[in-house]
Protein backbone atom coordinates (compact mmCIF):
# COMPACT_ATOMS: atom_id res chain seq x y z
CA UNK A 1 0.00 0.00 0.00
CA UNK A 2 1.32 3.44 -0.77
CA UNK A 3 1.44 6.22 1.77
CA UNK A 4 -1.55 8.10 0.37
CA UNK A 5 -3.93 5.11 0.63
CA UNK A 6 -2.82 4.55 4.21
CA UNK A 7 -3.26 8.22 4.98
CA UNK A 8 -6.77 8.10 3.48
CA UNK A 9 -7.73 5.18 5.72
CA UNK A 10 -6.32 7.03 8.72
CA UNK A 11 -8.13 10.30 8.03
CA UNK A 12 -11.46 8.58 7.36
CA UNK A 13 -11.03 6.50 10.51
CA UNK A 14 -10.50 9.71 12.49
CA UNK A 15 -13.86 10.97 11.24
CA UNK A 16 -15.52 7.67 12.12
CA UNK A 17 -13.92 7.88 15.56
CA UNK A 18 -15.15 11.43 16.02
CA UNK A 19 -18.80 10.59 15.35
CA UNK A 20 -18.78 7.26 17.15
CA UNK A 21 -17.22 8.66 20.30
CA UNK A 22 -19.63 11.59 20.52
CA UNK A 23 -22.45 9.05 20.52
CA UNK A 24 -21.03 7.33 23.61
CA UNK A 25 -23.16 8.09 26.65
CA UNK A 26 -21.21 10.03 29.33
CA UNK A 27 -22.18 7.40 31.90
CA UNK A 28 -19.93 4.97 30.03
CA UNK A 29 -16.89 7.20 29.66
CA UNK A 30 -14.81 5.13 32.07
CA UNK A 31 -15.55 1.84 30.24
CA UNK A 32 -14.80 3.74 27.02
CA UNK A 33 -11.32 4.54 28.28
CA UNK A 34 -10.79 0.96 29.41
CA UNK A 35 -11.91 -0.53 26.11
CA UNK A 36 -9.97 1.96 23.96
CA UNK A 37 -7.01 0.97 26.05
CA UNK A 38 -7.59 -2.67 25.29
CA UNK A 39 -8.00 -2.15 21.55
CA UNK A 40 -5.01 0.17 21.22
CA UNK A 41 -3.01 -2.89 22.26
CA UNK A 42 -3.56 -4.09 18.70
CA UNK A 43 0.03 -2.85 18.60
CA UNK A 44 0.69 -6.46 19.60
CA UNK A 45 0.59 -7.14 15.85
CA UNK A 46 3.81 -5.16 15.48
CA UNK A 47 5.25 -6.86 18.54
CA UNK A 48 4.51 -10.32 17.12
CA UNK A 49 6.30 -9.45 13.88
CA UNK A 50 9.25 -8.04 15.82
CA UNK A 51 9.53 -11.13 17.99
CA UNK A 52 10.00 -13.28 14.90
CA UNK A 53 12.95 -11.32 13.64
CA UNK A 54 15.48 -13.93 12.80
CA UNK A 55 19.05 -12.73 12.91
CA UNK A 56 18.37 -9.79 15.22
CA UNK A 57 18.47 -11.11 18.75
CA UNK A 58 17.89 -7.76 20.50
CA UNK A 59 14.93 -6.89 18.28
CA UNK A 60 13.44 -10.28 19.02
CA UNK A 61 13.60 -9.79 22.78
CA UNK A 62 12.20 -6.28 22.51
CA UNK A 63 9.36 -7.81 20.52
CA UNK A 64 8.71 -10.51 23.10
CA UNK A 65 8.61 -7.99 25.95
CA UNK A 66 6.23 -5.85 23.88
CA UNK A 67 4.03 -8.92 23.32
CA UNK A 68 3.87 -9.47 27.09
CA UNK A 69 3.08 -5.81 27.82
CA UNK A 70 0.38 -5.67 25.15
CA UNK A 71 -1.08 -8.92 26.50
CA UNK A 72 -1.44 -7.38 29.96
CA UNK A 73 -3.48 -4.65 28.33
CA UNK A 74 -5.56 -6.85 26.08
CA UNK A 75 -6.61 -9.29 28.77
CA UNK A 76 -6.75 -6.68 31.52
CA UNK A 77 -8.51 -4.06 29.40
CA UNK A 78 -11.26 -6.27 28.05
CA UNK A 79 -11.76 -8.04 31.40
CA UNK A 80 -12.07 -4.83 33.39
CA UNK A 81 -14.43 -3.36 30.79
CA UNK A 82 -16.57 -6.47 30.94
CA UNK A 83 -16.60 -6.26 34.73
CA UNK A 84 -17.66 -2.61 34.70
CA UNK A 85 -20.32 -3.04 32.04
CA UNK A 86 -21.86 -5.94 33.95
CA UNK A 87 -22.55 -3.53 36.82
CA UNK A 88 -24.73 -1.13 34.82
CA UNK A 89 -28.29 -2.18 35.53
CA UNK A 90 -31.69 -0.70 34.89
CA UNK A 91 -34.30 -0.11 37.56
CA UNK A 92 -36.22 -3.09 38.87
CA UNK B 1 3.46 -5.78 3.11
CA UNK B 2 5.99 -3.78 1.18
CA UNK B 3 7.26 -3.33 -2.31
CA UNK B 4 8.21 -6.69 -3.71
CA UNK B 5 6.54 -8.80 -1.03
CA UNK B 6 3.44 -10.69 -2.11
CA UNK B 7 0.36 -8.89 -0.79
CA UNK B 8 -2.29 -11.32 0.24
CA UNK B 9 -5.68 -9.60 -0.11
CA UNK B 10 -7.20 -11.91 2.51
CA UNK B 11 -4.75 -10.66 5.10
CA UNK B 12 -5.59 -7.04 4.39
CA UNK B 13 -9.27 -7.96 4.52
CA UNK B 14 -8.88 -9.70 7.88
CA UNK B 15 -7.23 -6.61 9.39
CA UNK B 16 -10.04 -4.49 7.96
CA UNK B 17 -12.63 -6.75 9.62
CA UNK B 18 -10.73 -6.40 12.90
CA UNK B 19 -10.83 -2.62 12.49
CA UNK B 20 -14.60 -2.73 11.92
CA UNK B 21 -15.06 -4.84 15.04
CA UNK B 22 -13.25 -2.13 17.01
CA UNK B 23 -15.50 0.59 15.58
CA UNK B 24 -18.56 -1.46 16.58
CA UNK B 25 -17.07 -2.01 20.04
CA UNK B 26 -17.09 1.74 20.63
CA UNK B 27 -20.47 2.13 18.94
CA UNK B 28 -21.90 -0.34 21.46
CA UNK B 29 -21.08 2.06 24.28
CA UNK B 30 -23.82 4.43 23.14
CA UNK B 31 -26.06 2.69 25.65
CA UNK B 32 -25.45 0.33 28.58
CA UNK B 33 -27.82 -2.17 26.95
CA UNK B 34 -25.66 -2.67 23.86
CA UNK B 35 -22.31 -2.13 25.56
CA UNK B 36 -21.48 -5.70 26.48
CA UNK B 37 -22.07 -6.93 22.96
CA UNK B 38 -19.73 -4.16 21.84
CA UNK B 39 -17.03 -5.32 24.21
CA UNK B 40 -17.31 -8.88 22.87
CA UNK B 41 -16.90 -7.54 19.34
CA UNK B 42 -13.76 -5.75 20.50
CA UNK B 43 -12.38 -9.08 21.77
CA UNK B 44 -13.31 -10.73 18.48
CA UNK B 45 -11.52 -8.01 16.53
CA UNK B 46 -8.41 -8.46 18.65
CA UNK B 47 -8.51 -12.23 18.14
CA UNK B 48 -8.82 -11.77 14.37
CA UNK B 49 -5.89 -9.36 14.27
CA UNK B 50 -3.63 -11.59 16.38
CA UNK B 51 -4.51 -14.85 14.62
CA UNK B 52 -4.06 -13.26 11.20
CA UNK B 53 -0.59 -12.08 12.16
CA UNK B 54 0.33 -15.45 13.62
CA UNK B 55 -0.62 -17.44 10.52
CA UNK B 56 0.68 -15.05 7.89
CA UNK B 57 4.01 -13.95 9.34
CA UNK B 58 7.12 -15.69 10.34
CA UNK B 59 6.88 -15.72 14.13
CA UNK B 60 8.95 -16.60 17.16
CA UNK B 61 8.78 -20.11 18.54
CA UNK B 62 5.31 -20.91 19.90
CA UNK B 63 6.83 -21.58 23.32
CA UNK B 64 8.41 -18.13 23.60
CA UNK B 65 5.31 -16.39 22.30
CA UNK B 66 3.01 -18.52 24.43
CA UNK B 67 5.05 -17.66 27.50
CA UNK B 68 5.01 -13.93 26.74
CA UNK B 69 1.25 -13.92 26.14
CA UNK B 70 0.55 -16.11 29.16
CA UNK B 71 2.62 -14.00 31.54
CA UNK B 72 1.06 -10.76 30.30
CA UNK B 73 -2.41 -12.23 30.06
CA UNK B 74 -2.45 -13.62 33.59
CA UNK B 75 -1.14 -10.38 35.09
CA UNK B 76 -3.71 -8.38 33.16
CA UNK B 77 -6.61 -10.67 33.88
CA UNK B 78 -5.94 -11.07 37.59
CA UNK B 79 -5.44 -7.32 38.02
CA UNK B 80 -8.67 -6.61 36.18
CA UNK B 81 -10.62 -9.01 38.41
CA UNK B 82 -9.18 -7.80 41.67
CA UNK B 83 -8.87 -4.05 41.25
CA UNK B 84 -11.21 -1.94 43.40
CA UNK B 85 -13.54 0.23 41.34
CA UNK B 86 -12.32 3.31 43.20
CA UNK B 87 -8.82 2.56 41.86
CA UNK B 88 -9.97 2.58 38.23
CA UNK B 89 -8.26 5.90 37.33
CA UNK B 90 -4.82 4.63 38.33
CA UNK B 91 -5.43 1.28 36.61
CA UNK B 92 -6.28 3.04 33.37
CA UNK B 93 -3.16 5.22 33.72
CA UNK B 94 -1.05 2.10 34.27
CA UNK B 95 -2.54 0.43 31.21
CA UNK B 96 -1.81 3.53 29.12
CA UNK B 97 1.81 3.39 30.15
CA UNK B 98 2.02 -0.20 28.89
CA UNK B 99 0.66 0.72 25.46
CA UNK B 100 3.22 3.52 25.32
CA UNK B 101 6.06 1.19 26.27
CA UNK B 102 4.92 -1.45 23.78
CA UNK B 103 4.95 1.20 21.04
CA UNK B 104 8.49 2.24 22.00
CA UNK B 105 9.67 -1.38 21.95
CA UNK B 106 8.06 -2.10 18.60
CA UNK B 107 9.55 1.04 17.09
CA UNK B 108 12.97 0.13 18.49
CA UNK B 109 12.66 -3.41 17.11
CA UNK B 110 11.68 -1.99 13.72
CA UNK B 111 14.69 0.31 13.81
CA UNK B 112 17.08 -2.50 14.74
CA UNK B 113 15.65 -4.96 12.25
CA UNK B 114 13.89 -3.01 9.49
CA UNK B 115 14.01 -5.92 7.06
CA UNK B 116 11.48 -7.91 9.08
CA UNK B 117 9.00 -5.05 8.83
CA UNK B 118 9.49 -4.54 5.10
CA UNK B 119 10.54 -0.93 5.45
CA UNK B 120 13.91 -1.12 3.71
CA UNK B 121 14.36 0.83 0.51
CA UNK B 122 16.24 -0.54 -2.51
CA UNK B 123 19.44 1.09 -1.20
CA UNK B 124 19.33 -0.96 1.99
CA UNK B 125 18.44 2.06 4.12
CA UNK B 126 15.16 2.56 5.96
CA UNK B 127 12.59 4.37 3.76
CA UNK B 128 12.43 8.09 4.56
CA UNK B 129 8.69 8.05 5.18
CA UNK B 130 9.10 5.09 7.53
CA UNK B 131 11.75 7.00 9.46
CA UNK B 132 9.30 9.83 10.14
CA UNK B 133 6.55 7.39 11.13
CA UNK B 134 8.94 5.47 13.33
CA UNK B 135 10.30 8.64 14.92
CA UNK B 136 6.80 9.91 15.68
CA UNK B 137 5.76 6.47 16.95
CA UNK B 138 8.64 6.18 19.37
CA UNK B 139 8.26 9.79 20.53
CA UNK B 140 4.52 9.55 21.20
CA UNK B 141 4.96 6.12 22.78
CA UNK B 142 7.67 7.35 25.12
CA UNK B 143 5.66 10.44 26.12
CA UNK B 144 2.65 8.21 26.77
CA UNK B 145 4.77 5.92 28.91
CA UNK B 146 6.51 8.41 31.18
CA UNK B 147 3.46 10.70 31.35
CA UNK B 148 1.23 7.80 32.36
CA UNK B 149 3.69 6.62 34.99
CA UNK B 150 3.57 10.06 36.62
CA UNK B 151 -0.22 10.18 36.31
CA UNK B 152 -0.36 6.73 37.93
CA UNK B 153 1.90 7.78 40.82
CA UNK B 154 -0.22 10.89 41.43
CA UNK B 155 -3.54 9.05 41.22
CA UNK B 156 -2.28 6.20 43.36
CA UNK B 157 -1.03 8.60 46.03
CA UNK B 158 2.65 7.58 45.69
CA UNK B 159 3.35 11.15 44.63
CA UNK B 160 1.74 14.33 45.86
CA UNK B 161 -1.30 15.30 43.82
CA UNK B 162 -0.20 18.90 44.13
CA UNK B 163 1.30 20.48 41.05
CA UNK B 164 5.10 20.49 41.18
CA UNK B 165 6.42 23.59 39.46
CA UNK B 166 9.93 23.84 38.09
CA UNK B 167 11.28 27.30 37.38
CA UNK B 168 11.32 28.10 33.66
CA UNK B 169 9.42 24.93 32.86
CA UNK B 170 7.64 26.37 29.82
CA UNK B 171 10.96 27.28 28.21
CA UNK B 172 12.45 23.86 29.04
CA UNK B 173 9.37 22.01 27.73
CA UNK B 174 9.20 23.95 24.49
CA UNK B 175 12.94 23.51 24.00
CA UNK B 176 12.77 19.75 24.50
CA UNK B 177 9.73 19.48 22.20
CA UNK B 178 11.48 21.49 19.49
CA UNK B 179 14.53 19.27 19.93
CA UNK B 180 12.46 16.12 19.45
CA UNK B 181 10.75 17.43 16.30
CA UNK B 182 14.04 18.74 14.91
CA UNK B 183 15.74 15.40 15.48
CA UNK B 184 12.89 13.49 13.82
CA UNK B 185 13.36 15.78 10.82
CA UNK B 186 17.11 15.15 10.89
CA UNK B 187 16.46 11.41 11.16
CA UNK B 188 15.24 11.51 7.55
CA UNK B 189 18.67 12.49 6.34
CA UNK B 190 20.73 10.49 8.81
CA UNK B 191 19.60 7.18 10.22
CA UNK B 192 22.41 6.84 12.76
CA UNK B 193 21.39 5.08 15.94
CA UNK B 194 22.20 8.12 18.14
CA UNK B 195 19.42 10.13 16.47
CA UNK B 196 16.83 7.45 17.15
CA UNK B 197 17.89 6.90 20.74
CA UNK B 198 18.14 10.61 21.52
CA UNK B 199 14.59 11.11 20.26
CA UNK B 200 13.51 8.23 22.51
CA UNK B 201 15.32 9.58 25.57
CA UNK B 202 14.12 13.16 25.11
CA UNK B 203 10.56 11.91 24.69
CA UNK B 204 10.70 10.02 27.98
CA UNK B 205 11.92 13.22 29.62
CA UNK B 206 9.24 15.46 28.11
CA UNK B 207 6.45 13.06 29.14
CA UNK B 208 7.68 13.35 32.71
CA UNK B 209 8.08 17.14 32.55
CA UNK B 210 4.63 17.64 31.03
CA UNK B 211 2.66 15.78 33.69
CA UNK B 212 4.60 16.66 36.86
CA UNK B 213 3.23 20.24 37.09
CA UNK B 214 -0.40 19.16 36.67
CA UNK B 215 -2.51 18.93 39.83
CA UNK B 216 -4.70 16.02 40.89
CA UNK B 217 -7.99 17.65 39.98
CA UNK B 218 -6.90 18.16 36.39
CA UNK B 219 -6.23 14.43 36.12
CA UNK B 220 -9.44 13.74 34.14
CA UNK B 221 -7.94 15.80 31.32
CA UNK B 222 -4.51 14.21 31.67
CA UNK B 223 -5.84 10.66 31.67
CA UNK B 224 -7.96 11.43 28.59
CA UNK B 225 -5.02 13.07 26.86
CA UNK B 226 -2.74 10.11 27.51
CA UNK B 227 -5.51 7.84 26.24
CA UNK B 228 -5.43 9.87 23.05
CA UNK B 229 -1.62 9.66 22.80
CA UNK B 230 -1.64 5.89 23.20
CA UNK B 231 -3.94 5.81 20.17
CA UNK B 232 -1.74 8.07 18.06
CA UNK B 233 1.29 5.95 18.96
CA UNK B 234 -0.52 2.83 17.74
CA UNK B 235 -1.55 4.67 14.56
CA UNK B 236 2.03 5.78 13.86
CA UNK B 237 3.23 2.20 14.17
CA UNK B 238 0.34 1.13 11.93
CA UNK B 239 1.71 3.48 9.27
CA UNK B 240 5.13 1.86 9.60
CA UNK B 241 3.67 -1.63 9.32
CA UNK B 242 1.05 -0.71 6.70
CA UNK B 243 -1.49 -2.36 8.94
CA UNK B 244 -5.14 -1.26 8.60
CA UNK B 245 -6.26 -2.66 11.95
CA UNK B 246 -3.62 -0.63 13.77
CA UNK B 247 -4.34 2.55 11.81
CA UNK B 248 -8.10 2.35 12.28
CA UNK B 249 -7.72 1.53 15.98
CA UNK B 250 -5.16 4.26 16.50
CA UNK B 251 -7.44 6.81 14.87
CA UNK B 252 -10.41 5.67 16.97
CA UNK B 253 -8.53 5.73 20.25
CA UNK B 254 -6.80 8.96 19.36
CA UNK B 255 -10.07 10.75 18.61
CA UNK B 256 -11.74 9.19 21.61
CA UNK B 257 -9.14 10.54 24.01
CA UNK B 258 -9.12 13.91 22.30
CA UNK B 259 -12.90 14.24 22.57
CA UNK B 260 -12.85 13.22 26.22
CA UNK B 261 -10.14 15.81 26.92
CA UNK B 262 -12.29 18.42 25.19
CA UNK B 263 -15.38 17.44 27.21
CA UNK B 264 -13.40 17.63 30.45
CA UNK B 265 -11.90 21.03 29.60
CA UNK B 266 -15.31 22.40 28.65
CA UNK B 267 -16.73 21.15 31.94
CA UNK B 268 -14.08 23.16 33.78
CA UNK B 269 -14.34 26.15 31.44
CA UNK B 270 -10.60 26.01 30.91
CA UNK B 271 -8.60 25.79 27.75
CA UNK B 272 -6.63 22.67 26.97
CA UNK B 273 -3.46 24.76 26.87
CA UNK B 274 -4.02 26.12 30.37
CA UNK B 275 -4.53 22.62 31.74
CA UNK B 276 -1.38 21.35 30.04
CA UNK B 277 0.57 24.37 31.24
CA UNK B 278 -0.27 23.09 34.70
CA UNK B 279 -0.05 24.65 38.13
CA UNK B 280 -3.79 25.09 38.68
CA UNK B 281 -4.64 25.17 42.37
CA UNK B 282 -1.06 25.75 43.46
CA UNK B 283 -1.19 29.52 43.77
CA UNK B 284 -4.43 29.91 45.65
CA UNK B 285 -3.05 28.45 48.89
CA UNK B 286 -1.27 31.67 49.77
CA UNK B 287 -4.22 33.63 51.14
CA UNK B 288 -7.52 35.25 50.37
CA UNK B 289 -9.70 32.65 52.04
CA UNK B 290 -9.04 34.09 55.51
CA UNK B 291 -11.87 36.61 55.37
CA UNK B 292 -14.50 33.96 54.95
CA UNK B 293 -13.80 31.99 58.11
CA UNK B 294 -15.98 34.07 60.43
CA UNK B 295 -19.09 33.92 58.30
CA UNK B 296 -22.02 32.17 60.00
CA UNK B 297 -23.05 28.74 58.86
CA UNK B 298 -25.44 26.06 60.06
CA UNK B 299 -24.40 22.66 61.28
CA UNK B 300 -26.73 19.67 61.16
CA UNK B 301 -26.70 16.15 62.53
CA UNK B 302 -27.42 12.81 60.87
CA UNK B 303 -30.87 12.84 62.52
CA UNK B 304 -31.66 16.27 61.08
CA UNK B 305 -30.59 15.11 57.65
CA UNK B 306 -32.61 11.90 57.91
CA UNK B 307 -35.69 13.82 59.00
CA UNK B 308 -35.41 16.42 56.24
CA UNK B 309 -34.92 13.84 53.54
CA UNK B 310 -37.64 11.46 54.71
CA UNK B 311 -40.13 14.35 54.50
CA UNK B 312 -39.00 15.29 51.01
CA UNK B 313 -40.75 14.55 47.77
CA UNK B 314 -37.53 14.50 45.76
CA UNK B 315 -33.88 14.24 46.80
CA UNK B 316 -31.00 14.77 44.36
CA UNK B 317 -27.68 13.27 45.39
CA UNK B 318 -24.54 15.01 44.08
CA UNK B 319 -21.47 12.78 44.46
CA UNK B 320 -17.86 13.87 43.96
CA UNK B 321 -14.33 12.64 44.40
CA UNK B 322 -14.78 12.67 48.20
CA UNK B 323 -17.33 9.88 47.86
CA UNK B 324 -14.73 7.77 46.07
CA UNK B 325 -12.08 8.51 48.70
CA UNK B 326 -14.45 7.59 51.53
CA UNK B 327 -15.74 4.54 49.58
CA UNK B 328 -19.22 5.74 50.48
CA UNK B 329 -21.06 4.55 47.36
CA UNK B 330 -22.56 1.41 48.92
CA UNK B 331 -23.78 3.23 52.03
CA UNK B 332 -25.17 5.91 49.73
CA UNK B 333 -27.19 3.41 47.75
CA UNK B 334 -28.56 1.97 51.00
CA UNK B 335 -29.62 5.48 51.96
CA UNK B 336 -31.30 5.85 48.60
CA UNK B 337 -33.18 2.56 49.12
CA UNK B 338 -34.36 3.65 52.59
CA UNK B 339 -35.57 6.96 51.21
CA UNK B 340 -37.48 5.20 48.47
CA UNK B 341 -39.20 3.13 51.18
CA UNK B 342 -40.32 6.45 52.64
CA UNK B 343 -41.82 7.32 49.27
CA UNK B 344 -39.09 9.79 48.31
CA UNK B 345 -37.97 10.12 44.69
CA UNK B 346 -34.19 9.78 44.54
CA UNK B 347 -32.00 10.93 41.67
CA UNK B 348 -28.28 11.34 41.20
CA UNK B 349 -26.63 14.29 39.46
CA UNK B 350 -23.16 13.88 37.98
CA UNK B 351 -20.89 16.72 36.97
CA UNK B 352 -18.61 15.74 34.06
CA UNK B 353 -15.42 16.39 36.04
CA UNK B 354 -16.57 14.82 39.31
CA UNK B 355 -13.88 12.32 40.27
CA UNK B 356 -10.53 11.67 38.71
CA UNK B 357 -11.50 10.42 35.26
CA UNK B 358 -14.42 10.76 32.86
CA UNK B 359 -17.39 8.74 34.08
CA UNK B 360 -15.70 7.86 37.40
CA UNK B 361 -18.83 8.52 39.51
CA UNK B 362 -21.09 6.57 37.17
CA UNK B 363 -18.96 3.46 37.54
CA UNK B 364 -18.91 3.72 41.33
CA UNK B 365 -22.68 4.16 41.51
CA UNK B 366 -23.13 1.25 39.11
CA UNK B 367 -20.87 -0.82 41.35
CA UNK B 368 -23.13 -0.02 44.28
CA UNK B 369 -26.13 -1.22 42.21
CA UNK B 370 -27.63 2.18 41.61
CA UNK B 371 -29.77 1.74 38.47
CA UNK B 372 -28.29 3.83 35.67
CA UNK B 373 -31.65 5.39 34.82
CA UNK B 374 -31.59 7.18 38.18
CA UNK B 375 -28.27 8.82 37.31
CA UNK B 376 -28.35 12.05 35.30
CA UNK B 377 -25.85 14.31 33.60
CA UNK B 378 -25.55 17.98 34.48
CA UNK B 379 -27.54 19.39 31.57
CA UNK B 380 -30.35 16.87 32.02
CA UNK B 381 -30.98 17.52 35.70
CA UNK B 382 -29.88 21.07 36.41
CA UNK B 383 -33.34 22.55 35.84
CA UNK B 384 -34.81 20.16 38.41
CA UNK B 385 -33.03 21.52 41.48
CA UNK B 386 -35.56 24.37 41.73
CA UNK B 387 -38.34 21.81 42.26
CA UNK B 388 -36.29 19.64 44.59
CA UNK B 389 -36.65 19.55 48.35
CA UNK B 390 -33.18 18.34 49.28
CA UNK B 391 -29.89 18.42 47.38
CA UNK B 392 -27.47 16.03 49.09
CA UNK B 393 -23.86 16.92 48.26
CA UNK B 394 -21.35 14.22 49.15
CA UNK B 395 -17.67 14.75 48.43
CA UNK B 396 -18.22 17.33 45.70
CA UNK B 397 -17.27 20.96 46.20
CA UNK B 398 -16.25 23.24 43.38
CA UNK B 399 -18.79 21.75 40.96
CA UNK B 400 -21.54 23.10 43.24
CA UNK B 401 -20.06 26.54 43.93
CA UNK B 402 -22.52 29.26 42.91
CA UNK B 403 -19.61 31.71 42.68
CA UNK B 404 -18.84 30.15 39.30
CA UNK B 405 -21.99 31.86 38.04
CA UNK B 406 -21.72 35.21 39.79
CA UNK B 407 -18.20 36.08 40.95
CA UNK B 408 -16.06 37.23 38.05
CA UNK B 409 -12.93 37.26 40.21
CA UNK B 410 -13.27 33.59 41.13
CA UNK B 411 -10.80 31.21 39.48
CA UNK B 412 -13.70 28.93 38.61
CA UNK B 413 -15.89 31.70 37.11
CA UNK B 414 -17.70 30.44 34.03
CA UNK B 415 -17.40 26.79 34.89
CA UNK B 416 -20.75 25.03 34.46
CA UNK B 417 -21.94 24.05 37.95
CA UNK B 418 -24.82 22.11 39.42
CA UNK B 419 -27.49 24.54 40.68
CA UNK B 420 -27.81 22.82 44.07
CA UNK B 421 -28.48 26.10 45.89
CA UNK B 422 -31.87 26.30 44.15
CA UNK B 423 -33.11 23.29 46.10
CA UNK B 424 -35.17 24.06 49.24
CA UNK B 425 -32.43 22.62 51.44
CA UNK B 426 -28.83 21.74 50.69
CA UNK B 427 -27.17 19.09 52.83
CA UNK B 428 -23.41 19.27 52.39
CA UNK B 429 -21.13 16.54 53.75
CA UNK B 430 -17.61 17.72 54.46
CA UNK B 431 -14.88 16.61 56.82
CA UNK B 432 -14.37 20.04 58.39
CA UNK B 433 -14.96 23.68 57.59
CA UNK B 434 -11.23 24.23 57.07
CA UNK B 435 -10.48 22.63 53.73
CA UNK B 436 -11.33 24.07 50.36
CA UNK B 437 -11.90 22.40 47.00
CA UNK B 438 -9.16 21.79 44.49
CA UNK B 439 -9.52 25.25 43.01
CA UNK B 440 -8.50 26.64 46.39
CA UNK B 441 -11.62 28.80 46.63
CA UNK B 442 -14.14 29.07 49.40
CA UNK B 443 -17.61 27.77 48.52
CA UNK B 444 -20.42 30.36 48.78
CA UNK B 445 -22.80 27.51 49.31
CA UNK B 446 -21.65 26.80 52.89
CA UNK B 447 -22.97 30.12 54.19
CA UNK B 448 -26.37 30.20 52.57
CA UNK B 449 -29.53 30.13 54.70
CA UNK B 450 -30.77 26.95 53.07
CA UNK B 451 -27.51 25.03 53.55
CA UNK B 452 -26.91 22.63 56.40
CA UNK B 453 -23.35 21.38 56.85
CA UNK B 454 -22.86 17.77 57.92
CA UNK B 455 -19.30 17.66 59.20
CA UNK B 456 -17.98 14.09 59.26
CA UNK B 457 -16.39 11.39 57.19
CA UNK B 458 -18.71 10.86 54.24
CA UNK B 459 -19.20 7.14 54.75
CA UNK B 460 -19.80 7.40 58.52
CA UNK B 461 -22.28 10.23 58.05
CA UNK B 462 -24.25 8.33 55.43
CA UNK B 463 -24.29 5.20 57.59
CA UNK B 464 -25.63 7.24 60.52
CA UNK B 465 -28.30 8.73 58.31
CA UNK B 466 -29.29 5.24 57.21
CA UNK B 467 -29.66 4.22 60.87
CA UNK B 468 -31.77 7.28 61.63
CA UNK B 469 -34.03 6.49 58.70
CA UNK B 470 -35.11 3.16 60.22
UniProtKB/TrEMBL annotation, chain A:
The record's Pfam families line, in alphabetical order, gives: PNTB_4TM
Residue span(s) of domain NAD(P) transhydrogenase alpha subunit C-terminal: 7-90
What are the BP-aspect GO terms? Answer: NADPH regeneration
Kindly state which reaction or reactions the protein catalyses: NAD(+) + NADPH + H(+)(in) = NADH + NADP(+) + H(+)(out)
- Which E.C. number(s) belong to this protein? 7.1.1.1
State the source organism's domain of life. Answer: Bacteria
Q: What class of enzyme is it?
A: translocase
Listed A to Z, the keywords are: Cell inner membrane, Cell membrane, Membrane, NAD, NADP, Oxidoreductase, Translocase, Transmembrane, Transmembrane helix
GO (cellular component) term, any one: plasma membrane
Q: Which GO terms describe its molecular function?
A: NADP binding; oxidoreductase activity; proton-translocating NAD(P)+ transhydrogenase activity
Q: Which residues cross the membrane?
A: 6-25, 32-55, 61-81
Q: How does it sit in the membrane?
A: Multi-pass membrane protein
Tell me where in or outside the cell this protein is found: Cell inner membrane
What does the record give as the function of this protein?
Answer: The transhydrogenation between NADH and NADP is coupled to respiration and ATP hydrolysis and functions as a proton pump across the membrane.
Checking PANTHER family in the record gives: NAD(P) TRANSHYDROGENASE (PTHR10160), PROTON-TRANSLOCATING NAD(P)(+) TRANSHYDROGENASE (PTHR10160:SF19)
- Name listed for the protein in its UniProt record: proton-translocating NAD(P)(+) transhydrogenase
Query: Which source organism does the UniProt entry give?
Result: Sphingomonas kyeonggiensis
From TrEMBL, chain B:
The name this protein goes by in its record: NAD(P) transhydrogenase subunit beta
Supply one GO CC term from the record: plasma membrane
InterPro entries, sorted:
DHS-like_NAD/FAD-binding_dom, NADH_DH_b, PNTB-like
Quaternary structure and interacting proteins, as annotated: Complex of an alpha and a beta chain; in Rhodospirillum, the alpha chain seems to be made of two subunits.
The superkingdom listed in its UniProt entry is Bacteria
Q: Does the keyword Transmembrane helix apply?
A: yes
Q: Where are the transmembrane segments?
A: 12-29, 41-59, 65-84, 91-112, 132-153, 165-188, 194-214, 221-239, 245-265
Give the bilayer topology.
Answer: Multi-pass membrane protein
Record's keyword annotation contains Membrane: yes
- Per its UniProt entry, what is the enzyme's top EC class, as one word? translocase
Provide the species name: Sphingomonas kyeonggiensis
Catalyses which reaction(s): NAD(+) + NADPH + H(+)(in) = NADH + NADP(+) + H(+)(out)
| Cell compartments where the protein resides | Cell inner membrane
Q: Name one GO molecular function term.
A: oxidoreductase activity
What is the recorded function of this protein according to its Swiss-Prot or TrEMBL entry? The transhydrogenation between NADH and NADP is coupled to respiration and ATP hydrolysis and functions as a proton pump across the membrane.
Residue ranges occupied by any NADP transhydrogenase beta-like domain in the UniProt entry? 12-467
Q: Which family does it belong to?
A: Belongs to the PNT beta subunit family.
Q: Name one Pfam family in it.
A: PNTB
Keywords from the named record:
Cell inner membrane, Cell membrane, Membrane, NAD, NADP, Oxidoreductase, Translocase, Transmembrane, Transmembrane helix
The EC number(s) given in the record are 7.1.1.1
